[in-house]
Amino acid sequence: MIARMVKNTGSTLEPEGLALYARLAQKPGHVASALGMMANWELDALERDLSHLTTPLVLIVGAKDRTIPPWQAPRVRSLVRSAEIVELPNLGHLAHEEQPRMVADLLTNLARDHGVLAECAPSDTAKSVGAKRG
């Protein structure tokens, strides 16, 4: 069941990652919290308020994401004209678990580029795996 759920996100995880999800799924408190969080999302209000966003928005999109389809990113950018889209080829919804180092480097670079982090040695990891900024 867990393998099928993960596959339906468009991601591919190693057996260890699948085992960790299986452990989480056995914890009623975790499952109830995750479902409760999703049940309380107010997506209409979020969509309405996006046009008022004043902080930089970067949409990181797994090209193979089947949970939040990649075509949603340009739709969100139409609401937030200054939004940047970074596409991660060959990764799904769980990109941060498929390629944790690459995603961490990408986030670090984005934070530095937006002045959230002090200058540090740049990492070319995100570029080397083909993350496309646009």
Write up what this structure looks like.
It contains 8 helices and 3 strands; from the N terminus they run ααααβαβαααβ. It has a single domain, classed as Alpha/Beta hydrolase fold, catalytic domain (Rossmann fold, 3-Layer(aba) Sandwich), CATH 3.40.50. Strand 1, helix 5 and strand 2 form a beta-alpha-beta unit. The protein is mainly alpha-helical and 134 residues long. Helix content is 50%, strand content 9%.
State the CATH superfamily name: Alpha/Beta hydrolase fold, catalytic domain
- Give the SSE order as H and E letters: HHHHEHEHHHE
Question: Going across the major beta sheet, what is the strand order?
Answer: 1-2-3
Low-confidence stretches: none
What's the overall average pLDDT, rounded? 91
List the SSEs and their pairings.
Elements: H1 2-7, H2 15-25, H3 28-39, H4 43-50, E1 58-62, H5 72-79, E2 84-88, H6 95-98, H7 100-113, H8 125-128, E3 132-133
Parallel strand pairs: 1-2
Antiparallel strand pairs: 2-3
Key traits:
134 residues; mainly alpha; Rossmann fold; three-stranded mixed β-sheet; 3 strands; globular
Give the structure's gist in a few sentences.
The protein is mostly helical. The chain is 50% helix and 9% strand. The protein has one domain: Alpha/Beta hydrolase fold, catalytic domain (Rossmann fold).
